[in-house]
């Protein structure tokens, strides 16, 4: 095939060096792709739900990560297969967009692929399957909208937000203090949220961790924590009502960007230069002092002489503060980042009620707390924990919880968790399938079956009989019509924690509507993409 | 159609049972490795580095041993990590934490084998852990009155498992004195910052010759021709270039066109240095300590002025000296009236062994002190330093949190008893895990007894019987090889250390238990430099 003939009958080559390339075509290609996608999903399947297990990942450099966050697992797994990389992308885009449900989306895509394989074997054209899936996903998303509830919350009524965050955290290693962490996350998000515009800038929340102490010591600080200490060991460790000058210029002699040379050829010039240099440091410090700064935070280093001058003039200073942190400090304290000493004015200073240095443990670890800021819109979640991996995992969990809280503020609709939403969708899609004429009907039905995979995995991970539990819950959903809803009862889910009820309203297991919808849409999209591939050409190994 | 490999060629993937097995085995291997170093009769390990020189370390400090190991098993790395954290956070108990985590996993393995879900086991372990902390905080002893006595006990208990155990009385006193100095002048909440306790190691003499010096000792020589002894010294601590004071303005360079001008510039340079020295002298000092080098020329000037100049004190030394003498670290010298000078009563040169050191005594801040360790070899000194560090850490933690417990396996037995009772009253599968926790706790006194060459089964059984009586203070007395009253023997441990051990071990065990799959990425390829 790679050899074609031109109009004179001379052969020419379309794909070069054919022997060295592997090529899969037609059904084989689709099946290979599907199996690759499924094997990725299989890895994540056991991580789903509150009883999901963790994965231990050893990076190429030998660092160990323990996590059950889908996006992190896939990211660190370093997959080689192209289709598997698509799945990784899928999980990543869920992470970027929603932040939570990264495992669920991959599991769903896996089970959609599994169903598609069966249909392919029956000889249904992949494009028809893809179209059927598309139709079904629309039905599911609409149905989700119908079963969703609006959540009311305010500055003081955060209980519902906390409950939703707790659902997210319950599948993580931190679940023994999920209540506390959920509250921290919600408070952090509310502190930076713009409730008018329904927007949350998560960049304003800094999540920082320090090894040591216990998880219960994790705290929310209305201010900034910087992993730095005062530039001179004898500067005061605590400053009340600080006026902060935030500088991006070093306390060093100027380094113009254009090349230049200062030639010294006489003693006078030598002397002059020396005086000037001296004057220079003096001016810099004086300028800071003049505008009334009581603390200098600088992105760059200090010269020894400047450092001493600062100390001498009783102006505490912090050096080598990273750019991101500098911005956060500027936002929190309401100051401006000043790039040149000449531009320093009193209005550009940031204000903070308390700046203090705190030391940890037996080593020389110190951190700088900037609290009671003028504008408390930047907060820090400061995590403590027994070991490095625990901190890293807690950071990821907090990130998920923050995202969930943010999504709720953007759109306060929720659906019930524990697989109940998937089951409800599955029922709805199944019912709708019969209305479609044509081959798509099969694909829609297959979609309904695929949706069952998530509650199944949940039940399996919790040590329940998957098929038995699922069918029981399904019949419950259909059987008990509530007076309010008139139709089915979409709150029944898998009782993972063995509480004794399948009603997720009682168990307080919530998920965000947009998260769920996004899961369905993203998974469908990727599966469609994979199904449309019918030829895999991979270059030979180098 | 063969299933495509989705991972890279060299990567490996282990699932389910196999993954769990791999992590259990790895973790237990690490625990067994350090197990023999536990307790007063624990043995040491020799560590030989693979680097050039094949340097050798002899130690029984858990954190040090584990830090130097090259480990491939990811679960084992978790244990190494917790021991490191324990070291950073409380300083002692680095072996216990690993042994306890290992034992917890050993017990958990049995439960997993009998088909109990890992999550259920974790739930049980956490329940037991919270109960333990509760029990511990209800039985602890508050120390207040005989503060020093109790600190001595704790120090002795910590040191008894180290190389210093022969002279533990001596070293315990050293450590307690050093830590109490931190407390006296500080706030009520003593600092845990051990910076102002300096440890100097000098080979020679015996361990017994180690001493605590109330002043500050700087491991430097006094410049030639300068006074060897200064009373009522005014010290200027500085961080400034005393070699050739470079022009810092970027791009400046000297370009001359005749020899005469070179001489001029040189003279100017010299003049500059002379001025600088004059400025420094204008502070009215008789001792000048610089972090950077002092060249011969300024040194000579100092000597002429009868000022003691010490060059190249390292950064820590400078900071400490500034802290101790109450001076500030200066880099500019234009305003002599406003620079705070450091003071001390006496500076003199002393001899320790062969070496000359400079001693600053009668310093302003009473907090600082120096411990001079003497010993036969570098290995002994290194180990002694580590041991002393452990003791100092524990003591400083205790000063902050003055709760103490008895040692010798007493807290473990108390907790085990309480946890056993809890297991009996807990319904459901979790109770198995709670029971496992108590078994793991008992393993610690068992190991201590085993390491001492005692009949552990017999001793632990007797200990358990003792503990079932009311208000028992029984623990294992390793010296006499029997069960003894810990309050009489004066064996105490800090509450904070025990708490941290429990916490870290449980957390580590939980993390490892939760894993059901291990994915090892392909190792990063080294570029061939051929």
From TrEMBL, chain A:
SUPFAM superfamilies: GroEL apical domain-like, GroEL equatorial domain-like, GroEL-intermediate domain like. PROSITE patterns: TCP1_1, TCP1_2, TCP1_3. It is found in: Cytoplasm, Cytoskeleton, Microtubule organizing center, Centrosome. It catalyses: ATP + H2O = ADP + phosphate + H(+). GO terms for cellular component: chaperonin-containing T-complex. Keywords: Acetylation, ATP-binding, Chaperone, Cytoplasm, Cytoskeleton, Hydrolase, Isopeptide bond, Nucleotide-binding, Phosphoprotein, Ubl conjugation. One of its GO terms (molecular function) is ATP hydrolysis activity. InterPro entries: Chap_CCT_epsi, Chaperone_TCP-1, Chaperonin_TCP-1_CS, Cpn60/GroEL/TCP-1, GroEL-like_apical_dom_sf, GROEL-like_equatorial_sf, TCP-1-like_intermed_sf, TCP-1_chaperonin. It comes from the Eukaryota. PANTHER family: CHAPERONIN. Component of the chaperonin-containing T-complex (TRiC), a molecular chaperone complex that assists the folding of actin, tubulin and other proteins upon ATP hydrolysis. The TRiC complex mediates the folding of WRAP53/TCAB1, thereby regulating telomere maintenance. As part of the TRiC complex may play a role in the assembly of BBSome, a complex involved in ciliogenesis regulating transports vesicles to the cilia. Heterooligomeric complex of about 850 to 900 kDa that forms two stacked rings, 12 to 16 nm in diameter. Belongs to the TCP-1 chaperonin family. This is T-complex protein 1 subunit epsilon. It comes from Linum tenue. The lineage of its organism: Eukaryota, Viridiplantae, Streptophyta, Embryophyta, Tracheophyta.
UniProtKB/TrEMBL annotation, chain B:
One of its GO terms (molecular function) is ATP binding. It comes from the Eukaryota. Coiled coil: none annotated. Pfam families: Cpn60_TCP1. GO terms for cellular component: chaperonin-containing T-complex. Gene3D superfamilies: GroEL, GroEL-like equatorial domain, TCP-1-like chaperonin intermediate domain. The keyword Protease does not apply. The keyword Cytoplasm applies. Keywords: ATP-binding, Chaperone, Cytoplasm, Nucleotide-binding. InterPro entries: Chap_CCT_beta (IPR012716), Chaperone_TCP-1 (IPR017998), Chaperonin_TCP-1_CS (IPR002194), Cpn60/GroEL/TCP-1 (IPR002423), GroEL-like_apical_dom_sf (IPR027409), GROEL-like_equatorial_sf (IPR027413), TCP-1-like_intermed_sf (IPR027410), TCP-1_chaperonin (IPR053374). It is found in: Cytoplasm. Molecular chaperone; assists the folding of proteins upon ATP hydrolysis. Known to play a role, in vitro, in the folding of actin and tubulin. Belongs to the TCP-1 chaperonin family. This is CCT-beta.
């Amino acid at each position: 095939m790679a050899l074609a003939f031109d109009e004179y009958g001379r052969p020419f080559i379309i794909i070069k060096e054919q022997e060295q390339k592997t090529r899969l075509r037609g059904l084989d290609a689709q099946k290979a792709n599907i199996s690759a996608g499924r094997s990725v999903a299989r890895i994540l399947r056991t991580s789903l739900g509150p009883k999901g297990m963790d994965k231990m990942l050893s990076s190429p450099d030998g660092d160990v990560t323990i996590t059950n966050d889908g996006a992190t697992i896939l990211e660190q797994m370093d997959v080689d297969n192209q289709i598997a990389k698509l799945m990784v992308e899928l999980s990543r885009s869920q992470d970027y967009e929603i932040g939570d449900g990264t495992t669920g989306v991959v599991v769903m895509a896996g089970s959609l692929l599994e169903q598609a394989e069966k249909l392919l074997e029956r000889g249904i054209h992949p494009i028809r399957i893809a179209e059927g899936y598309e139709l079904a996903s629309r039905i599911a998303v609409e149905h989700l909208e119908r079963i969703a509830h609006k959540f009311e919350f305010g500055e003081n009524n955060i209980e519902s937000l906390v409950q939703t965050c707790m659902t997210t955290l319950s599948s993580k290693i931190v679940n023994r203090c999920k209540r506390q962490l959920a509250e921290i996350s919600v408070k952090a998000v509310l502190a930076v949220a713009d409730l008018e515009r329904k927007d949350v800038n998560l960049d304003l929340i800094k999540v920082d961790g320090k090894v040591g102490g216990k998880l219960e010591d994790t705290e929310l600080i209305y201010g900034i924590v910087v992993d730095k200490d005062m530039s001179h060991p004898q500067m005061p460790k605590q400053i009340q009502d600080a006026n902060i000058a935030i500088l991006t210029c070093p306390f060093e002699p100027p380094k113009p960007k254009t090349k230049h040379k200062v030639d010294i050829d006489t003693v006078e010039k030598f002397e002059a230069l020396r005086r000037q240099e001296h004057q220079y440091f003096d001016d810099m410090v004086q300028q800071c002092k003049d505008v009334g700064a009581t603390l200098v935070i600088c992105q760059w280093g200090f010269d020894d002489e400047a450092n001493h001058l600062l100390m001498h003039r009783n102006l505490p200073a912090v050096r080598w503060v990273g750019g991101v942190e500098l911005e956060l400090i500027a936002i929190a304290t309401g100051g401006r980042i000043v790039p040149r000493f000449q531009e320093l004015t009193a209005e550009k200073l940031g204000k903070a009620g308390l700046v203090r240095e705190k030391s940890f443990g037996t080593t020389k670890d110190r951190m700088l707390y900037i609290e009671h800021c003028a504008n408390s819109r930047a907060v820090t979640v400061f995590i403590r924990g027994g070991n490095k991996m625990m901190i890293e995992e807690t950071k990821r969990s907090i990130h998920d919880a923050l995202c969930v809280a943010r999504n709720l503020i953007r759109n306060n609709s929720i659906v019930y968790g524990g697989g109940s939403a998937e089951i409800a969708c599955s029922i709805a899609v199944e019912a709708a399938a019969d209305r479609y004429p044509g081959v798509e009907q099969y694909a829609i039905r297959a979609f309904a079956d695929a949706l069952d995979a998530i509650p199944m995995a949940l039940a399996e991970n919790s040590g329940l009989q998957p098929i038995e539990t699922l069918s029981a819950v399904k019949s419950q959903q259909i059987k008990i019509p509530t007076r309010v809803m008139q139709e089915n009862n979409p709150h029944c889910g898998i009782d993972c924690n063995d509480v004794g009820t399948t009603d997720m309203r009682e168990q307080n297991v919530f998920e965000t509507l947009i998260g769920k919808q996004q899961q369905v849409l993203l998974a469908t999209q990727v599966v469609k993409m994979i199904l449309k591939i019918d030829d895999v050409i991979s270059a030979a190994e180098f | 159609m063969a299933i495509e490999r989705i991972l890279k060629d060299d990567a490996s993937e282990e699932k389910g049972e196999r993954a769990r097995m791999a992590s259990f085995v790895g973790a237990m291997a690490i625990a067994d490795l350090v197990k023999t170093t536990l307790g007063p009769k624990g043995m040491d390990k020799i560590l030989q580095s693979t680097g050039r020189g094949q340097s050798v370390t002899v130690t029984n400090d858990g954190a040090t041993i584990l830090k130097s190991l090259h480990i491939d098993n990811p679960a084992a790395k978790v244990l190494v990590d917790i021991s490191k954290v324990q070291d950073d956070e409380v300083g002692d108990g680095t072996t216990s934490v690993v042994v306890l985590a290992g034992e917890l996993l050993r017990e958990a393995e049995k439960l997993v084998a009998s088909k109990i879900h890992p999550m259920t086991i974790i739930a049980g372990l956490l329940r037991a852990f919270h109960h333990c902390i509760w029990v511990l905080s209800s039985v602890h002893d508050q120390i207040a009155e005989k503060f020093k006595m109790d600190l001595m006990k704790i120090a002795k208990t910590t040191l008894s498992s180290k190389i210093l155990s022969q002279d533990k009385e001596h070293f315990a006193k050293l450590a307690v004195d050093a830590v109490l100095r931190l407390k006296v002048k500080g706030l009520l909440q003593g600092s845990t910052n051990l910076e102002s306790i300096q440890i100097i190691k000098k080979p020679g003499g015996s361990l017994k010759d180690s001493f605590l010096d109330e002043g500050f000792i700087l491991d430097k020589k006094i410049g030639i021709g300068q006074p060897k002894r200064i009373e009522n010294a005014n010290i200027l601590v500085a961080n400034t270039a005393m070699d050739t004071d470079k022009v810092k303005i970027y791009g400046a360079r000297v370009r001359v066109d005749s020899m005469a001008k070179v001489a001029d510039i040189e003279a100017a340079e010299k003049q500059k240095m002379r001025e600088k020295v004059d400025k420094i002298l204008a502070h009215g000092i008789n001792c000048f300590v610089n972090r950077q080098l002092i060249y011969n020329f300024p040194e000579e000037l100092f000597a002429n002025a009868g000022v003691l100049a010490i060059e190249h004190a390292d950064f820590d030394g400078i900071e400490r000296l500034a802290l101790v003498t109450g001076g500030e670290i200066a880099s500019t010298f234009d305003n002599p009236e406003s620079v705070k000078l450091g003071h001390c009563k006496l500076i003199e040169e002393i001899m320790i062994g062969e070496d000359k050191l400079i001693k600053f005594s009668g310093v302003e801040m009473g907090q600082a002190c120096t411990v001079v360790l003497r010993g036969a070899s570098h290995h002994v000194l290194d180990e002694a330093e580590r041991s002393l560090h452990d003791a100092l850490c524990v003591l400083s933690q205790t000063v902050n949190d003055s709760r103490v417990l008895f040692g010798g396996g007493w807290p473990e037995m108390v907790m085990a008893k309480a946890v056993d009772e809890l297991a009996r009253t807990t319904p459901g599968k979790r109770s198995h895990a709670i029971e496992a926790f108590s078994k793991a706790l008992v393993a610690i006194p068992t190991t201590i007894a085993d390491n001492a060459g005692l009949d552990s089964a017999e001793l632990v059984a007797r200990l358990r019987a003792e503990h079932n009586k009311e208000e028992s203070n029984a623990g294992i007395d390793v010296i006499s090889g029997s069960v003894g009253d810990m309050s009489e023997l004066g064996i105490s441990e800090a509450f904070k250390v025990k708490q941290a051990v429990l916490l870290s071990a449980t957390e580590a065990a939980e993390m490892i238990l939760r894993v059901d799959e291990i994915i090892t990425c392909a190792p990063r390829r080294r570029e061939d430099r051929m």
